[in-house]
Amino acid sequence: MHLQGSCHCGAVRFSVEAHQPYPFMRCYCSICRKTAGGGGYAINLGADYASLTVEGEEHLSIYRARLESGEASTGQRHFCRHCGSALWLYDPTWPELVHPHASAIDTPLPLPPEHVHMMLGSRAPWVEVACKPNDRCFDDYPDESLADWHRRHGLTD
């Protein structure tokens, strides 16, 4: 699926081909919550890094979160330096992938048949997790990847 996205102020626009466009996985970790979450979580999609095109690249900044160990994460969180919109995560550990934030996508996204709530063990106490009957919940990482979830639901090419 071809996705187009932008920041709030319009300084940065991007497009990308997404093989995992369903916004199903909600991450409640402190990094996502504090850098991109509105409801106490962030939703990342799976896309092909080679297809990423960016207009307004000069308006981007990158944040590398500090892990509990004190080391910097390898994940590069791209955001607009003017309005602060979280746009995508790129990690050179997996150079073929980029993870746009669903909140930055302007293209209408498909409604997922279920949600996966991950990193619930580090959610903020004020966050209410709205789990539906078919949703899956994990204190840490889920037992399947973005690609595997899409395959299980027959949502891949």
TrEMBL record:
The keyword Transcription is annotated on this UniProt entry: no
Single GO term (MF): metal ion binding
Keywords for the protein's UniProt record, in alphabetical order: Lyase, Metal-binding, Transferase, Zinc
Pfam families: GFA
Coiled-coil boundaries: none
InterPro entries in alphabetical order: CENP-V/GFA (IPR006913), Mss4-like_sf (IPR011057)
Keyword rRNA processing: no
Gene3D superfamilies: 2.170.150.70
PROSITE patterns referenced in this protein's UniProt entry, alphabetically: CENP_V_GFA
Every CENP-V/GFA domain range: 3-127
Highest taxon in the source lineage: Bacteria
Family in the record: Belongs to the Gfa family.
The protein's name in its UniProt record: Alanine acetyltransferase
Organism in which the protein naturally occurs: Pseudomonas flexibilis
Taxonomic placement: Bacteria, Pseudomonadati, Pseudomonadota, Gammaproteobacteria, Pseudomonadales
